[in-house]
Amino acid sequence: MVAPDALLLVTGGCPHCPAVLQALTGLLKEGVIGRLEVVNVAVHTEAAEERNVQSVPWTRIGPYEIPGVISPAELKRYAQGADDQTFFDNYVLDLLKTGRRARFEALVKNEPERIHSLARLMTNPEASMAIRLGIGAVLEEFQGTELTRPLVPGLGALLASENPLLRADACHFLTLIGGEEARPYMQTCLNHTDAELREMAKEWLGQSNSP
Fold first, then answer.
1. Residue 44's CB: how many other CB atoms inside 10 A?
2. How far is it, in rounded angstroms, from Cα 211 to Cα 206?
3. Continuous segment of H or E residues that includes residue 102
4. What gap in Å lies between CA 144 and CA 154, rounded to an integer?
5. d(CA 63, CA 79)
6. In which residue ranges of the chain is pLDDT below 70?
7. 63 lies in the same domain as 132
8. What is the side-by-side order of every strand in the sheet holding 35-40?
């Protein structure tokens, strides 16, 4: 595992910043993080503004943004989870739960392979209606781009799920992604035993075939 880099935003008068700085410095010495950048946002206000940071301490470790006070043990878990798929999926789950999908969208723009987390989350028992709405919103945001294309095979496989809600979500998300990659799966849905899938496929294929 490659040690991730870390960024810490602080101010001189912050009572909690020294503890987080000390913890990160310890992780740097251990080699758990590879580089540590500390920025005083009272001096460099742009560092907070460009990240929409409202309060400090604020930490970023690898792909993870962590506002507020955090224990040394938790910081270490984030650092060690930088390349951990399950840890990352749980992070995305929390982002969607708390209405912070813009953070995930920013991550995908920089690291397109992160998009696969959405398909994995669909089968997560904690994937509530709010999570599914969040996934749909991300797909709508990226509609017309190439960023969501890698999801098509995985969503297509979910059309065979025994869970009718999962099938319906997969079909709906395929219509949001669209494109020729989705067409074979939608054509298959025309003969599906699930009437909802047949209706969605018929509607999408009709629209995509319109001049």
1. 11
2. 10
3. helix 101-110
4. 19
5. 9
6. 1, 209-211
7. no
8. 35-40, 5-10, 58-61, 64-67
The verdict on 95 and 195 lying in the same domain is yes
Domain containing 51 equals 5-80
- Joined tokens for residue 188: 């298959």
Q: How confident is the model at residue 211, as a pLDDT?
A: 41
Looking at the structure of the chain, the number of domains it has is 2
**For the chain, how are helix, strand and coil distributed in percent, rounded to 5?**
55, 10, 35
Look up the pTM and report it: 0.86
Mode of pairing for the β-strands spanning 35-40 and 58-61 = unpaired
Same structural domain, 129 and 28: no
| 115 and 198 inside one domain | yes
Which amino acid is present at 148? T
Same domain membership, residue 202 and residue 174? yes
**Partners of residue 61 on adjacent β-strands:** 6, 64
User: Which one of 61, 80, 99 terminates a domain?
Assistant: 80
Q: At 179, which amino acid appears?
A: G
